[in-house]
Specification:
It comes from Roseicella frigidaeris. Catalyzes the N-acylation of UDP-3-O-acylglucosamine using 3-hydroxyacyl-ACP as the acyl donor. Is involved in the biosynthesis of lipid A, a phosphorylated glycolipid that anchors the lipopolysaccharide to the outer membrane of the cell. It catalyses: a UDP-3-O-[(3R)-3-hydroxyacyl]-alpha-D-glucosamine + a (3R)-hydroxyacyl-[ACP] = a UDP-2-N,3-O-bis[(3R)-3-hydroxyacyl]-alpha-D-glucosamine + holo-[ACP] + H(+). InterPro entries: Hexapep (IPR001451), Hexapep_transf_CS (IPR018357), LpxD (IPR007691), Trimer_LpxA-like_sf (IPR011004), UDP_GlcNAc_AcTrfase_non-rep (IPR020573). With about 350 residues, the chain is mostly beta strands. The chain has three helices and 39 strands. It has a twelve-stranded mixed beta sheet. Strands 8-11-14-17-20-25-28-31-34-37 form a ten-stranded parallel beta sheet, with no helix packed on it. Strands 9-12-15-18-23-26 form a six-stranded parallel beta sheet, with no helix packed on it. Strand 38 and strand 39 form a beta hairpin. About 40% of the residues are buried.
Length: about 350
């Protein structure tokens, strides 16, 4: 069960409301109440649990959960006393139930006494500015945002409504849409990695004169960095999710709904079309185009364009089937079985 010291609950919720949140059908008393969520093996009668992976089906028979969100194929296996909340998308349904029972904290409107807010900054109604936060000249922050402790928002930055900027974020040269979440330590809008060598063997920094544009409901994981554009903008499309420790170079463009997993890096001026997935520790060189719904495997080294709906892996990357054929060939060579 979620620790109430860190995850306060919304109070008792009726079964009918829980089912509506999950998008699930059920049989039972619609007035039965639930107060939390928990895994199958530790849930009690007041908890909602879920099953989304066949390997955990054995836990279903012994669960003490009061309700279980699951797919139709498992509905008949729910033990007596538990309610089957049946939906074709149990993981999504459970996520929505968890949010119903443990909603994110609402902003506490006001500016903390230790915050530093420029006189000409604009703070929207209902927004919370936390301890030691710094809001630069001409910055505009929308309504119902939370700016947590030690966050720094640079001059002229614009932030849409319902955004959450966690502790020690810094944002400069950027425009954020609504519902954006920046986790602790995120850096947005710093100089990109651009320089020209000099005849004397030194380096001259290329002025980075673009911005970062984050679309609505973008979420950026802890300690990730998004460089501002050089001559144009760096653009992260609506709904895109970055994991922790992701690096986005200058002038990168992503479409909507992309997923970029921890420790991946995307070099400057590369474009990801809609719904591209980049797995952990993958690296993409610059000036590439990755087609819509392509998937880049973990630790892949991508040096060429990737067509839409193509899965690649390896370094240098290649289509998945080619990669595994090559690995099989190498294994035979290594064991001396290749003629």
């Amino acid at each position: 069960m979620a620790d109430p010291r860190f995850f306060p609950g919304s109070g008792a919720q009726r079964l009918s409301d829980v089912a509506a949140a999950a998008g699930a059908s059920f049989t039972g008393d619609p007035g039965r109440v639930f107060t939390g969520v928990a895994p199958l093996q530790s849930a009690g009668p007041g908890d909602v649990s879920f099953l989304d992976n066949r390997r955990y089906a054995g836990l279903l028979a012994t669960t003490q959960a009061g309700a279980v969100v699951l797919a139709p194929a498992f509905a008949a296996q729910v033990p007596a006393g538990a309610v089957a909340l049946v939906t074709p998308q149990p993981y999504l349904g459970f996520a929505r139930v968890a949010r119903l029972l443990h909603p994110p904290p609402a902003p506490v409107p006001g500016v903390h006494a230790t915050a530093v807010v420029a006189p000409d900054a604009t703070i929207g109604a209902g927004t919370e500015i936390g301890p030691y936060a710094v809001i630069g000249a001409g910055a505009r922050i929308g309504s119902n945002c939370i700016i947590h402790a030690h966050a720094t928002i640079g001059p002229a930055v614009e932030i849409g409504e319902d955004c959450r900027l966690h502790a020690h974020c810094s944002v400069s040269h950027a425009i954020l849409g609504r519902g954006v979440v920046l986790h602790p330590g995120v850096r947005i809008g710093q100089e990109g990695f651009g320089f020209a060598p000099t005849p004397e063997g030194g380096f001259e920094t290329m002025p980075q004169l673009g911005r970062v544009l984050l679309g609505d409901y973008v979420e950026v994981g802890a300690n990730s960095c998004i460089d501002r554009g050089s001559q144009g903008d760096t653009v992260i499309g609506p709904g895109t999710r970055l994991d922790n420790l992701v690096q986005i170079g200058h002038n990168v463009h992503t479409g909507r709904g992309c997923v970029i997993v921890g420790q991946a890096g995307i070099s400057g001026s590369t474009t990801l079309e809609d719904y591209v997935t980049v797995a952990a520790q993958a690296g993409l060189t610059g000036h590439l185009r990755i087609g819509a719904q392509a998937r880049i495997g973990a630790q892949a080294g991508v040096m060429n364009d990737v067509p839409a709906k193509t899965d690649v892996i390896g370094s240098p990357s290649m289509p998945v089937r080619e990669f595994w054929r090559a690995m099989a060939k190498l294994k035979k060579l290594g064991t001396g079985r290749e003629g």
